Description:
The structure holds 2 protein chains of 2 kinds. By secondary structure, chain A is mainly alpha-helical. Chain A is built from 11 helices and 2 strands. Chain A starts with a helix and ends in a 13-residue tail after the last helix. In chain B, strand 1 and strand 2 form a beta hairpin. Chain B is globular. In chain B, 46% of the residues are buried.
Amino acid sequence: MSEFLQHLINMLVLGGTYALLGIGLTLIFGIMNVVNFTHGVLYTFGAYIMFIVVQQLGLNFFLALPVAVLAGWLLGAVIELTLLRPLRGSDIDTTMLVMIGAWIAMQSGTLWIWGGVAKSVATPFPEAPLVLGPVSVSWLRLFVLAAAALLILVTYLLINKTSLGRAMRATFQDHDTASLMGVNVDMIYTSTFAIGSSLAAAAGALLGPVYVIFPQMGDLAAVKAFAIVILGGLGNITGAVIGGFILALAEELGAGYVSSGYRDAMGFLIIIAVLIFRPTGLFARAERVG
Amino acid sequence: MKAIITILAVAALASVPLWLRDPYLLNALITTGIFVIGAMSLNLLLGFTGQLSLGHIAFFGIGAYVSALTSLGFDIGLPGGVRLVHEPWPPIAGFVLAIIVAGLCGYFVGLLSFRVRGAYFVIVTISFAEVVRLVALNWVELTQGPLALTNIPSIALPLPGFGELTLRTKMQNYYLVLVVALIAYLLIARLVHSHFGRAMRGLMENETLAVSVGIDVTRTLTIAAVISAAIAGAAGSLYAHYIRIIDPEVFAFINTVTMVIMVISGGKGSLAGPVVGGLIFGLLPVALRPVMAPEAQWIAYGGVLIAILFVLPRGIVPSLAQRFGRRRNGRTALAPVALAETAAKEPA
């Protein structure tokens, strides 16, 4: 039982960052209809920003997180403006392949600049974990969970309570009508991509110090993000949050009770199972006509 | 005109080992040729049915593993204490089994993944390839996992009356790959110019219209997937017996991307496209090797993929064909014509 409780605690920590990844991808996928293969690279990028700020510049750990979010936002905006805006109106396969090209180039760039050796980030948290009865959790992981929860809340408020969020939701429903109503759709696309990218960078910045940082770390993160988006349904933010926690639970239980070698297979198996049995995601609402 | 170009191209390719003595370049040509076969099979799906399968390397890798395991033999425990022992068979049997097993996998994956389209289809196919990779990595008893299957025997051709010929030299392997590539090319050409080929293109252009004129979409897509997977499996088998060592990295996503780049750059939906694109992108790393670090090469690789999509979105071969003023003939006719032809021939 205590083993199961420990898995639940780990699930909460992982699930929070997975949810961040998933929200970013589902926004881009849902609003722009772009399958964003650079999402994993942005995750890696966020982790390396953390490494630069904390290890190379010697600045405060807590300052590094907002820097990573901002850097992810900027890089996302640059990718959108240079690669996606000129291809507006292209079919989804073309933008997907362009994103694959950008992913390969950027990941190789990371490898070129920082090398393949894994990096770790020193944290200000005590080594000894917090022990709560039968389970224990490190202070770093608690911080990761809290920061992820805060970012999810901020994103939720941004989408649901601001005029930018309203314009994004309108564009998601019908970009032609939104455009007719005076929404600057180009600006919405750039903002969406930038926000999605900053969330991926935040997830990388949070999980980077928990594990180690290396150039290919984003590949699995990207796949997990796809699994979460498919689980939660296209463009469904609440679905992405729940999907993040479900994936984390499946991984924890898979690694704990089946075999740790198959931990990373859980995401793929979920994708295949959901698409075969419930292709619109677990929490699909009635499709809007528009 | 087209036939002359084809014959000249084949003759030029066949003459290469006679004047090229550099083993490194010949090796690059052989591995490129194997990937070109894979790219041609991918083109059958991507270029003629419009389905972007990003898990194509799975069939290549399955072919490689099936062929290697058939010729090496294995001894594994199954649930219930049963042991499954397989004595080594000749590599040529492995080649045939690779085609059959990869084709069967293509059937099952097609059956499952053609229920969804677009981005979802792409993600299912990627997931399938990754699950296969993880199985190859973790089922150590069968695949040796990361330790790799080594000492895979070279292909031996049985010659009736003369015993058998083991293909050990680069030149022999070059001709083997060339012959398999030619067979694959002719098979795909025959297929796309048939009634079935028109059905495939019809549903690529407009699936709803294709259904309305009586094309069985799932059946058409599944047959295309089986043939495509079987050819990829053959390529994988050639790869295993030529390189003679196979590890789970053969399933790496980047290998699928390489095939996709070959198809897109050459021109999807063009028969010669994957060959032209494949030769360019297969040999590009060789050309870049003296001047660029490997990481920089990959950056260039990604950059070139983006550049092609921006500058030559239709690919090199179709763009050149248009440039030299070749009129559109019946074979490249637009969908409604293809559909009308199919509808006319479809038994009521």
